[in-house]
């Protein structure tokens, strides 16, 4: 039988979350677009002031390494246990603006139970949900444990300075566990508790075959930069569409039996993905669920060469450029993979193809048997129902978790209030109000559980 007192308080917290949303809504209205260098300082200032209003014993901004400031705050609680929360305040550009059905930076509540705005799903709504839990607990007896928040402003552009912030402020960030952003309900409406991220390597390839573009009548005997780069790219894949890079897969760590078992229990909506994306080709792997957790990838993000405008222009382009990213499995590192790809291009006869490193983040995976990870999962089962919770060893996406774990020695668990259809990074990004309310209750209970450990 449900505990009547718990049920009553849960309803009160969920109603409070909806009522308190308007107080936090200015956060969403701030146009903190890191890629366009706008709204950053105003947003950092708003966060610092809001933390102080919530009763933080200390709230400041860090900017020693340069780049966008990181906002740090700490709260004193009833126990000596400390939770470190990670979020980011920067958002993706709202473009293309014509595809939005409402103003991108004005939170708009819809009849379908969602609230629409840029960044509401990734990641402002999740931080708002956590701040709501703090406000509720402060108003109802105080915080059960110490809390720390670090909110960075460069996540959407690769977290270029976050490693330095962590190194500079390791003592400030010391905690027992780090609760990361990014949790959500999946396509089966199951709440996910995630233990890590894949790594990422982003780089550019370019080649120049002449000083000027040439008439295509010379194409019978003059090389073409576009074909040259296409050949270089093709040399990096096998007929089975795996990476043809010597030593690349040797770096991948063997999954533990427990991690593999967690993958087996994960949901994967293959048919739904095909339908939603309109996929016209079969999956690259027989087991796409396993691939999403532990398979490296090489993706051509974009390709540019020659003339692509209206009409006809018969030309041999003198240069070609491509942007690529690799999602890295556990054990791989950006620099090691970059070096292996460079060496493979050289062996394949493409020394003339230039390769430029853009960004890299190491992969990370928490110990799924860690007591704090287990506590987060147990609380999720209590809030959402035992059958409605799934453990994900690591997401297919990336993030700067590795430096936090390496420098601070913390287990990391990702939980949040998003959902599979939020449309993060796309026009009309949204958050479901019901998920937001449930997420506030989950956060209240999580703080209590971890405070009692």
From TrEMBL:
Provide the coiled-coil residue spans.
none
Q: What is this protein called?
A: Peptidase M20
Drop me one GO molecular function for this one: succinyl-diaminopimelate desuccinylase activity
Q: Where does the signal sequence lie?
A: none
InterPro entries in the cross-refs: Cyt/Met_Dipeptidase (IPR051458), Peptidase_M20 (IPR002933), Peptidase_M20_dimer (IPR011650)
Domain Peptidase M20 dimerisation positions: 196-348
Q: What does the entry give for GO biological process?
A: lysine biosynthetic process via diaminopimelate; proteolysis
Keywords in alphabetical order, please. Hydrolase, Metal-binding, Protease
Organism, by scientific name, is Lacticaseibacillus pantheris DSM 15945 = JCM 12539 = NBRC 106106
State the GO CC annotations: cytosol
């Amino acid at each position: 039988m449900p505990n009547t007192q718990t049920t009553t308080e849960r309803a009160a917290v969920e109603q409070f979350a909806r009522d308190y949303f308007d107080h936090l809504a200015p956060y969403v209205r701030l146009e903190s677009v890191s890629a366009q260098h706008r709204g950053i300082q105003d947003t950092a200032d708003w966060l610092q002031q809001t933390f102080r209003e919530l009763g933080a014993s200390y709230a400041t901004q860090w900017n020693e390494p340069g780049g966008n400031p990181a906002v740090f705050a700490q709260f004193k609680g009833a126990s000596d246990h400390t939770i470190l929360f990670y979020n980011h305040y920067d958002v993706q550009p709202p473009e293309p603006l014509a595809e939005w059905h409402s103003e991108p930076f004005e939170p708009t509540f819809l009849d379908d139970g969602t609230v629409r705005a840029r960044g509401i799903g990734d990641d402002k709504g999740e931080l708002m949900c956590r701040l709501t839990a703090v406000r509720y607990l402060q108003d109802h007896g105080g915080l059960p444990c110490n809390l720390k928040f670090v909110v960075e402003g460069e996540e959407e552009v690769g977290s270029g300075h976050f490693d330095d912030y962590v190194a500079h402020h390791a003592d400030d960030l010391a905690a027992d566990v780090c609760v990361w952003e990014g949790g959500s309900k999946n396509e089966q409406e199951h709440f996910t508790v995630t233990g890590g991220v894949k790594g990422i390597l982003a780089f550019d390839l370019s080649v120049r075959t002449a000083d000027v573009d040439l008439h295509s009548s010379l194409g019978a005997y003059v090389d073409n930069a576009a074909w040259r780069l296409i050949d270089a790219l093709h040399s990096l894949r096998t007929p089975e569409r795996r990476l043809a890079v010597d030593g690349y897969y040797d770096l991948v760590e063997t999954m533990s039996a427990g991690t593999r078992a967690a993958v087996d229990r994960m949901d994967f909506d293959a048919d739904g993905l095909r339908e939603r994306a309109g996929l016209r080709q079969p999956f690259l792997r027989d087991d796409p669920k396993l691939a999403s957790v532990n398979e490296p990838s090489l993706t051509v993000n974009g390709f540019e060469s020659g003339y692509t405008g209206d009409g006809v222009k018969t030309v041999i382009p003198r240069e070609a450029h491509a942007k690529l990213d690799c999602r890295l499995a556990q054990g791989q590192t950006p620099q090691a993979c970059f070096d292996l790809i460079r060496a493979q291009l050289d062996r394949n006869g493409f020394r003339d193809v230039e390769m430029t490193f853009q960004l890299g983040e190491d992969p990370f995976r928490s110990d799924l048997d860690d007591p704090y990870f287990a506590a987060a999962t147990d609380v999720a089962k209590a809030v959402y129902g035992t059958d409605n919770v799934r453990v994900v060893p690591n997401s297919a996406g990336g993030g700067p978790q590795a430096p936090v774990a390496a420098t601070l020695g913390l287990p990391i668990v990702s939980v949040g209030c998003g959902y599979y259809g939020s449309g993060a990074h796309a026009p009309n990004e949204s958050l479901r109000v019901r998920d937001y309310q449930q997420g506030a209750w989950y956060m209240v209970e999580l703080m209590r559980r971890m405070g009692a450990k």
